[in-house]
Q: What sequence folds into this?
């Protein structure tokens, strides 16, 4: 079977539901992953799905492929990714597949994998692709069996055990974005004793109100309006499969992922002084500075939820987070996976216990001046070479962090290079044909100089269209 290279991403499988995906492909994925599991001595797997229109059929085909390979399936039905991850940590199976396209628009679908409680990604996914193309899997003489499991109540109970009680009637608005976050999320938030207003809580794979991606400000308009209308203490938004969270204050200010991690890290460091906190190359220097100021050990790492989970295991980090709103807790007996629902609960706990508004808490984080995350279309065949050339150029002039693209530290010049207090990032996207660019300075002058230097190099080494954010 021939499959598109484009659907096998760095961290998962994802593509257009009908143009690039099919029930036959999902059955082949099940057969291939089933053989990988059996070869590793595994005998079972948890399978869940989101509410996209094609997800029921695709999940059924996936299960058929797994069963035919001799793997027993624990089917947990319509859930979100955090609940799937929870199941792999608490049931008899440390393996899982979630049929979802996360925050992508309704035209997409895909799946995420867990094997032996670890992310299954990168070269492992490319091996699955090769197996499917070569049909190098076989059917077991003894097919597996399917059992049904409702693990949602256990997920809620476990989350409650890892939260401190809310001591006053906090008022919260939650935008579920027509995704599957209300499954487990609604029960948890009400169990915490808060006054909750829900928006778009009914799962609907057509996403009729807005795309379920809380990193895009336009998707937060209804949330901000409702928070203001109700006078709520804060608002939260989940993405399509609820592994990411966004938040807004009662005055409508948006908190980005690195700002959430800064606030969470302070609480983690109170309970575990000196703990390691992981962030990614796109995050503000303000986060690193804040972690250090509160006695923590900040580690900057590559972008990508699978990569960060792996790094957490290596370092023993108790908290990690990305600009995209993936927040990973490994403190208080948490398992270290990204869970937007639980992160939202921790934010409510933090606000309730602080005696301050979320606006006031946000004001305590160092404020630097930054561009948004800029995505410049660039052919997949060119983006690696462009990033390499830009890295080579800046490495001769400044200190750089080159673990994921290049983060240039313009405050550390070599020779007579211009000095600006801040940094600039150019990296290739792992999920689309694009370059990711971001810059930050301590002053407008710093940011202006950094943008100028980045724009010069992008113009010199590429044909990408430079957006106005770098002008």
A:
């Amino acid at each position: 079977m021939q499959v598109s290279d484009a659907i096998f991403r760095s961290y998962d499988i994802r593509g257009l539901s009908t143009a690039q995906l099919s029930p036959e492909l999902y059955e082949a994925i099940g057969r291939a992953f089933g053989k990988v599991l059996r070869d590793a001595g595994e005998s079972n797997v948890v399978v869940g799905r989101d509410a996209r229109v094609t997800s029921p059929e695709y999940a059924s085909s996936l299960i058929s492929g797994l069963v035919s390979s001799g793997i027993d399936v624990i089917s947990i039905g319509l859930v979100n990714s955090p609940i799937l991850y929870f199941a792999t940590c608490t049931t008899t199976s440390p393996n899982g597949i979630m049929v979802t396209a996360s925050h992508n628009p309704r035209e997409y679908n895909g799946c995420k994998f867990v094997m032996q409680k670890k992310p299954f990604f990168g070269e492992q996914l490319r091996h699955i692709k090769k197996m499917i193309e070569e049909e190098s899997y076989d059917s077991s003489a003894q097919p597996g069996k399917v059992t049904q499991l409702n693990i949602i109540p256990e997920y809620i109970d476990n989350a409650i055990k890892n939260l401190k009680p809310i001591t006053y009637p906090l008022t919260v608005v939650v935008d579920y974005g027509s995704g599957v976050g209300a499954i487990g999320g609604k029960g948890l938030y009400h169990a915490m004793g808060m006054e909750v207003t829900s928006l778009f809580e009914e799962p609907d794979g057509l996403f009729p109100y807005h795309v379920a991606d809380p990193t895009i400000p336009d998707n937060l308009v209804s949330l901000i309006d409702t928070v203001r209308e109700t006078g709520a203490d804060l608002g939260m938004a989940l993405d399509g499969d609820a592994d990411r969270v966004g938040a807004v204050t009662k005055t409508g200010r948006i908190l980005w992922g690195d700002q959430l991690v800064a606030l969470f890290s302070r609480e983690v460091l109170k309970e575990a002084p000196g703990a390691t906190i992981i962030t990614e190359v796109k995050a503000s220097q303000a986060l690193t500075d804040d972690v250090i100021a509160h006695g923590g050990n900040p580690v900057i790492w590559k972008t990508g939820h699978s990569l960060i989970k792996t790094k957490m295991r290596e370092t023993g980090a108790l908290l990690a987070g990305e600009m995209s709103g993936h927040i990973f807790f490994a403190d208080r007996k948490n398992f270290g996976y990204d869970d937007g629902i639980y992160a939202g609960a921790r934010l409510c706990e933090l606000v309730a216990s602080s005696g301050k508004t979320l606006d006031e808490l946000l004001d305590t984080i160092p404020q630097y001046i930054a561009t948004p995350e800029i995505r410049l279309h660039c052919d997949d065949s060119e983006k690696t070479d462009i990033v390499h050339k830009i890295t080579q150029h800046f490495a001769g002039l400044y200190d750089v962090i080159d673990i994921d693209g290049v983060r240039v530290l313009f405050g550390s010049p070599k020779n007579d290079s211009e000095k600006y207090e801040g940094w600039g990032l150019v990296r290739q996207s792992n999920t689309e044909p694009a370059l990711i660019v971001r810059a930050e300075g301590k002053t407008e002058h710093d940011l202006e100089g950094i943008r100028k230097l980045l724009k010069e190099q992008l113009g010199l080494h590429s044909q990408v269209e430079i957006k106005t954010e770098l002008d």
Remarks:
- The mean pLDDT is 95.
- The longest helix spans residues 444-461.
